[in-house]
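ESCALATION

Customer reports they have been waiting on this structure for their group meeting. Please prioritize. Original submission:
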Amino acid sequence: MAGPPIHDLHFAQEPSVDRVPGPKSDRLREKQNEIDSNAVAYPNNIPLAFDEGKGATLKDVDGNVFLDFFAGIGVYNVGHANPYVNEAVHEQVDKLTHSVDFPTEPRLELIEKLEELAPGNLSGNSRVVFGGPTGSDAIEASIKLAKYNTGGRGLVAFRNSYHGATSGAMSITSNSKLKKHYAPLLPDVVHAPFPHPFQEGRDPEESVERALEEVRATIEQPYGGLANPAGIFVEPIQGEGGVVVPPEGFLQGLRDIADENDLPLVFDEIQAGFGRTGEWWAAEHYDVTPDAMTTAKALGGNGLPLSATIYHEDLDTWGPGDHAGTYRGHVPAMVGGVRAIEYIQSHDLLDHATEVGDYIRERLREAGEGDSGLGDVRGKGLFIGAEFVDSEGNPDDDRVEAIQQYCYEHGVLVWTAGQYDNVLRLLPPLVLTQRQAEVGTEIIADAIAATAEDERARA
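Update from on-call: job pushed to the front of the queue and completed.
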């Protein structure tokens, strides 16, 4: 077996919190406020300074131990400081860290593993291009790939989407607040509806039909509004948008439209992929294969930055230098990716993520019975969203903020998502044990009950 069992990876199976924030965290945050950028965001919501991580647990500088249900936005799929990953990365750091795109054994091994794991007919027929280290860089590469192969420039993306913070990635991201200070971005981008039955108040079939009609009209109608389309870009499960799981038929419908119009279909698997949903790629839940897909976040194994675009070999038409990036040869991260894949396979973490994720969602549904404000629980594997609404059915971001605060004070780190910040988003490492899932979810359930009681007291 590759590395230790998951039960041996953590500080503890339960959180241990004295008081938060502690004095050392306060001092470091005060110093950060004095010298760091105003763009710093996360400590504004969770006032902590971290010291060490192990498995699905984090320790702050004051010695408090937390269950990590966020994993660095889905980065630590095999847990913090996984020794099977780290020992190989440490060894590689002493040998070679940067190779541009010269061949190295880790680079070629990772490419071969990604081709083996690729969904559908991408497996055995794919190419991999590394560029910059972030998910945004992989999106930029996929946009360039689509334009290079089609000669088009128009891009179809989706409302409620997030693809990154560089110019091209922001262009296909739908968050207008994120983009408004940086316009103009790429021209000729149209955002079609992404089916969200709960928010729309529609049945799933109607929601899918409406979304696909918009995509087809945009691409095919003479007055559809998009000249010279180059490709369709979609998250198979939306992440920042609130862990929105599309109903059956949507991704297949996009596949059909792309095929009929000779356009590449690109899946953004940066947050949903690499085992997060209980399959290697979220696309596999729908048995739909994209022409290209992006991956990053957990790809580097132990938090090292690395991104890649995996695409069908028929699209490999560009020449030397047509896509580049200094850090496309980050060898330790490539070693980390290889070891992470081996650890996931050796410990059956895809099945484990499915089982533990099913437990968490079911327990959250139980906790949401009655007047808790919990409107919908969704997701796949350990990619989980719980959407909260008020008594009139409107998004309740205050409730989610209060739940996050309660969880933090009781030793569980969770985050928010959704265009109205009213979705509790859970992205725990795939090495989360059943016991940790039970303990952490009970704390979340207690938070739901406590905030519901506070709401009744105010009414």
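Sent to customer with the following note: The chain is about 40% helix and 15% strand.
Escalation resolved.
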